[in-house]
Amino acid sequence: MAFEPLLVGSRVFCGATAAILLGMPLPLRLRTGRLLHVGTLDARQPPRRRGVVGHRLTKGTRTIDVPGGFTVTDAASTWCQLAAELSREELTAVADYVLSGLPLSGSRRNAPLCSRDELSAAIAEHGARVGVAKLRWALEQARTGVDSAPETALRLLLVEEHFTEPVVALPVLVERGTITLHPDLAWPELRVVLEYEGDGHRESKRQFRADIRRREMFEAAGWRVIRVTADDLGPLRDEFVTRVHSVLAARVRDLHLMARFPQKAQ
After folding, report:
1. Of 46, 79, 103, 104, which sees the most CB atoms within 10 A?
2. What is the pLDDT at residue 203?
3. Which residues form the domain of 182?
4. Residue 42: what pLDDT?
């Protein structure tokens, strides 16, 4: 951040630069960008120099300080600024992140970066500028308790394919009620959970073993687990949708039999 010494007076980081400093889940094209986004909070001319994109921020734009001594536009304002560069699905992932807070051990989370009301107010302040329709759509789709952008993408894919929207981080009792797990997504009526597995789940031996044990606990408690990878959200999307349809149809048949013949099902 070589430009940081020049952040004097009313100048702050904004846009994609602020989003990175706030930890927001941005697509690779923005995370690897070399441009710094700097805005002015008054009527002065935004900075103009190589490698810097200057912005004149709206009056009353709120700011916060982040680790490293940088001042950036707050989470809600930054989210709105991203509307010109992100799709509505990508904006939903960012909204999920700021509303959920980072996951800690167990079911604990850090405090969220902002509230739904703050995002709504930021949209109103955004006015009729580029991307406002995407922001409204993303806020409507945003949920709390979300752990990652791929989980957001998975939920939106399922809704787009006309599945009932799954529940985020549903508490599920396993091990005879002694342990509570929170799957990424779930359909409680059918006792089906969806677990997104990124590359870290495969590359970490400890995580790999934990995933096996986690799946066993779900299944022992009578839940069907659907494991999801990046390919399922991309090149294998159609095959994945077909697989989900098959799993849900089988669960409907199985649960119907359990209701009719509970002793045999046990």
Report:
1. 79
2. 60
3. 149-265
4. 84
Among candidate residues 255, 143, 244, 241, the one with its CA nearest the CA of residue 191: 255
pLDDT attached to residue 106: 65
Core vs surface per residue 25-34: b (16+ CB within 10 A) or e = bbeeebeeee
Q: What are phi and psi of 199, to 5 degrees?
A: -60, -30
Is the domain of 9 the same as that of 125?
A: yes
Asked if residue 188 and residue 124 are part of one domain, the reply reads: no
Beta bridge partners of 185: 168, 194
CA dist list (Å): 212 to 140, 183, 223, 235: 35, 14, 14, 25
- Do residues 70 and 3 make contact, with C-beta atoms less than 8 angstroms apart? no
Task: Return the closest-CA partner of residue 82 out of 124, 137, 24, 160.
Answer: 24
* Residue numbers of the chain with a pLDDT score lower than 50: 1, 264-266
Tokens linked to 132: 């406002």
Q: In this predicted structure, what is the pLDDT of residue 266?
A: 42
Last residue within a domain, chosen from 102, 120, 141: 141
pLDDT at 4 (0 to 100): 53
Confidence (pLDDT) at 49: 83
Burial class (CB in 10 A: 0-12, 13-18, 19+), 133: exposed
Triad 165, 87, 182: Cα angle to 5°:
35
Q: Which two tokens stand for residue 107?
A: 């079911």
The answer to whether residues 130 and 16 belong to one domain is yes
The answer for residues whose C-beta is within 8 angstroms of residue 25's C-beta and 6 or more apart is 93, 94, 97, 148, 149
pLDDT at 10 (0 to 100): 83
Indicate if 132 and 194 belong to the same structural domain: no
SS3 category, 42: coil
* Residue 80 pLDDT: 96
pLDDT recorded at residue 68: 84
